[in-house]
Structures are given as structure tokens and as C-alpha cells.
Design brief:
The chain is α+β, with helices and mostly antiparallel strands. It contains four helices and twelve strands.
């Protein structure tokens, strides 16, 4: 990850954050706090499977005390990959270009959003499974560029993603911890049964078989 040092780029990102936060308040009636902002390059042919914004981490990044009383308590291999649910509630995606084929943002309900330069989509990123269709597959046009931002509604946890185990309250912790059926691999997608089950339980939604 590279830090952004250009002041004009920082100004533009800050304005984008403020506008997105304002829209979240107007549409959802919730105060949102930015957790993490990125400028993202999608090379030719790159996409992303449908997922919610659960994070994959090696077990050793989860403090032993935090594991107690969770499905992770008796895991022994510290290198195993597990899933953590951060306090993320919303995500926004600003499309920086559209001179490519593909690259649509798609959702489990069938919604497909075609990138248009300068437009932004905001959604509940833990509630709605979403993905990205491969862009510029044949390599004849430009690669896809976006500026995603993730937000939480809990101010004391707003730095959780970038600081690993500590929010701004310095007490650490996550919204939840989820086991991984195959700890040797990363799977935070809709095909993960534990992720799908957590989602159904948390949002009181009838589970859809994946």
C-alpha cells in the first residue's frame, strides 16, 4: 500500500468523503465515519467474486483472549486463515474512468451497475453481496480505476481496518469472528457457508443456498 502525498489528490478524496457521508445521512439517516480510502487499479481481466466486506486474516493476528468463546478458541495452527467481521457498514465506489469493456459492479439481487466516469455508488456493504465483473479482458482498452471508501457507523471503531486489532478506542475487537472451512485458503465470498450463515443470522434474512 502506498501513501498519498499529493495535496490536491488528498483534497479531492476529502471532498468525496464529505459528499458520500452526507448522502449516507440523507438516505439512511445514519452518521458514517470513513475507515479506509483507496485508489484502486484493476489490471486487464481482473474482477472480484461476489462477497460482503468480511476480511481474511491469519489466526495469529487475533489475540488469544479475543478468541475465547468463539469458534476460533481451540484452533491451533497460527497460520490458518480465518474471517473477521469489521465494524464496516457502508462502502462507496467512485468510478475514475469508463473507457473499457466490462468492470460492472453487480449485486446478488441482479442489479448491475455499469461504470460511468465521475459517478459514485453507495451501499450497505455487509448487507448486500456484491462483486466486480472482469474489465478490459482482451487488453485492448484502458484498465479500470476506482476510488473505494469503507465507512462505519461506530466512531470508536473507525480505524479498525487500517490498524488491524485496534479501533480509535484502542481496545481492539471486531463485530464477529467466523471460522473458515478450509483454513489454508482465503474465502470471504458468497460460497462460504459460515460467511453466508453469519450474514443470514445478523440481518435476520432467510438464508439463500449458494
Amino acid at each position: 500500500m502506498v501513501s498519498i502525498r499529493n495535496l490536491e489528490v488528498k483534497r479531492i478524496l476529502a471532498e468525496y468523503q464529505y459528499k458520500a457521508i452526507s448522502e449516507i445521512w440523507k438516505v439512511y439517516g445514519q452518521r458514517a465515519y470513513p475507515e479506509q480510502s483507496e485508489l484502486m487499479w484493476w489490471p486487464s481481466g481482473k474482477g472480484q467474486e461476489m462477497h460482503i466486506d468480511v476480511m481474511a486474516k491469519p489466526l495469529y493476528e487475533v489475540p488469544i483472549e479475543t478468541r475465547k468463546g468463539t469458534p476460533l478458541e481451540f484452533m491451533e495452527n497460527e497460520e490458518d486463515v480465518i474471517n473477521v467481521v469489521p465494524f464496516t457498514d457502508f462502502a462507496s465506489i467512485l468510478y475514475l474512468n469508463d473507457n473499457f469493456e466490462g468492470g460492472e459492479t453487480y449485486f446478488e439481487d441482479g442489479t448491475v451497475l455499469k461504470p460511468e466516469q465521475g459517478t459514485c455508488v453507495i451501499f450497505e456493504s455487509m448487507k448486500h453481496f456484491h462483486g466486480v465483473k472482469p474489465a478490459n479482458v482482451d487488453g485492448t482498452r484502458e484498465d479500470r480505476y476506482t476510488a473505494p471508501i469503507w465507512y462505519t457507523t461506530q466512531a470508536e471503531e473507525m480505524e479498525l481496518q487500517s490498524h488491524g486489532t485496534q479501533g480509535t478506542n484502542k481496545e481492539g475487537g471486531w463485530r464477529d469472528l467466523i471460522p473458515n472451512p478450509d483454513p489454508s485458503t482465503t474465502n470471504t465470498t458468497a460460497s462460504s457457508e459460515p460467511v453466508r450463515q453469519w450474514w443470514a443470522n445478523y440481518f435476520n434474512i432467510e438464508k439463500i443456498d449458494s
